[in-house]
Amino acid sequence: MNLLFISNDPNIGEEGSAVRLRMRAYAEEVAKTGGVLHIITRTKHGTTITDGPLIIHGRRGKNLLAMRSLARKLIKKEHVAVVSAQDPFEHGWVAVSAARGTQAKLHIQLHTDAFSPWFVRSGISRSPKVRMPFLNRIRQRTADRVLPKADGVRVVSQRIKDSLIARYGERMQGAQVIPIHVDTALPPKVPLPGAPFTFTLITVSRLEPEKRIQDILYALAGLKEEYPSVGLMIVGEGSERAQLERMVKQLGLMEHVRFLGARADARGLMQSAQAYIQASAYEGYGITLVEAALARVPIITTDVGIVGEVFKGNESVLSAPPGDPAQLLRNIQHLLLDESPRVSLPMRAAEAVQAHLASVHTEPADIIADITRLAV
User: Fold this and answer.
1) Which of 80, 112, 242, 350 could disulfide-link 4, Cβ–Cβ 3.0 to 4.6 Å?
2) Which of 284, 248, 278, 283 is nearest to 266 (CA)?
3) How many CA atoms lie within 13 A of 122 on its CB side?
4) Which residues are CB-contacts of 52 (< 8 A; sequence separation ≥ 6)?
């Protein structure tokens, strides 16, 4: 059975990358059905790469019409049984358009909480404004055209499935909740570089608008006079970095914030912090929350992703509504003033995550089985 993935991850074209290895594992599962896994994605050189049962059709740029044309040719020539798009937005449109009028089944994956009000909201009265991309509004409309046409849908959390049922009705009861795979092996502990803080918060994130790092900075600014030894380590890169660095200066936080950039040893760094903090406006799943729980550090987070599903507010994590730096501040104070939650929260979070990971099926065989069932 031949499958076709429509993707936008250029790292698939890089030999030895984590995503390439994962795609190869998927292809090996497809090979057990006697088929080949084709992937159309952006790559650096825009060439076709054959890696055993995996064939990567590289494209330069984001020409969706060219991607649709290639997908349609592959569906017909290679007798593709199922087309799976990595999202219900641009790539979902490509998949729907290419599969129309053919025998190929349509499978859509949704890894983000696209119907959270925060997907398009820039802020509320008690929070700083963080401009969300206008493209997100277009993406929601596109998803409304794509998802109802899908023969199968995979989501990464119950929160997303519930949002689909609320929007589209009972037809989405069949959506499969298959979380993102997380490696449970704990890497070595890594010391925080040049940290003069006695209480260090760490966040690991792409520096993009939806991560709302601004809310963490506002909370920290409210603490700096009373708790001058509290600091924040920011691990990650993104389009918001320059704006965040300006905000650090405006709030007088130069001595309290360190930008560490993208780090391959982020999970090791987590273990050296006194708490992990996240202020995302929305999340589909929340890999870093799982990783922080495995690192056994107290977690402060907004109510997003698997919070409420895996983690319980004030039981295994300290939670706050999105866009509420005042509540983030109070949660930090709670950890500073009371030693008890610094001990109990990590223990309960680790127990919750271990139980969660033991109950879900996220291996390549599970992903491919969810897709191939559509053609049986």
Assistant:
1) 80
2) 278
3) 7
4) 24, 27, 28, 31
Where do the structural domains in the chain lie, given as residue ranges? Answer: 2-178+361-375, 199-359
Q: How many residues does the chain have?
A: 376
User: Could you tell me the two tokens for 211?
Assistant: 């991560």
CATH of domain 2-178+361-375: 3.40.50.2000
Domains 2-178+361-375 and 199-359 share a fold: yes
SS3 assignment for 195-220: CCCCEEEEEECCCCHHHCHHHHHHHH
Query: Going residue by residue through the chain (376 aa), what tens digit of pLDDT does each one get?
Result: 999 999 989 999 999 998 999 999 999 999 999 999 999 999 888 899 999 999 999 998 889 999 999 999 999 999 999 999 999 999 999 999 999 999 999 999 999 999 999 999 988 877 888 999 999 999 999 999 999 999 999 999 999 999 999 999 999 999 999 999 999 999 999 999 987 899 999 999 999 999 999 999 999 999 999 999 999 999 999 999 999 999 999 999 999 999 999 999 999 999 999 999 999 999 999 999 999 999 999 999 999 999 999 999 999 999 999 999 999 999 999 999 999 999 999 999 999 999 999 999 999 999 999 999 999 8
Residues with Cβ within 8 Å of 70's Cβ and at least 6 positions away in sequence, in order, are 40, 57, 59
Radius of gyration of the chain (CA): 22
Amino acid identity at 352: A
C-alpha angle 260/287/206, rounded to 5°? Answer: 35
The helix/strand/coil state of 151 is coil
Nearest to 151 by CA among 94, 82, 98, 235: 82
User: Yes or no: is domain 199-359 CATH 3.40.50.2000?
Assistant: yes
Which tokens in the block code for residue 343?
Answer: 């001990």
